[in-house]
Amino acid sequence: MKLAGLTVAYWAVLVAALLPLACGWLAKSGSFGKSRRDGGYDNHNPRAWLARQTDWRARANAAQANSFEALPFFIGAVIIAHQLGGTQIRIDVLAFVFVVLRLLYIAMYVADMATARSLLWTAALAVNVAILFT
Fold first, then answer.
1. Residue 3 — pLDDT band, cuts 50, 70, 90?
2. In which band, very low, low, confident or very high, does the pLDDT at 17 lie, cut at 50, 70 and 90?
3. In the chain, helix, strand, coil percent, each to 5?
């Protein structure tokens, strides 16, 4: 299936590429209105500001880093599956499932549900391998 010339799997790549940005926004949310002296977001030194965060903000930032780490393998798997002529519907469904699993992973990470988060990470990795071998 194609939308605007792209398969569902390619759209899933776009969504997956935006997930780290969403995590970064989440980590910084609610801190933009505060002054830097009051602990508000410091756009002059954002990495140091994020490094000082704790609890859910720190976990959202960690989810951002992990989302960036998961991205190359996912992009590669989708491209390779397309190039090798894998069954398109299978590639599309698996890519969609990968994105859903990653969204749930981020939610579990921010909510500090470590076991669920790890299970979702493993499931997303397995789906990614399945895409590669489709």
1. low
2. very high
3. 75, 5, 20
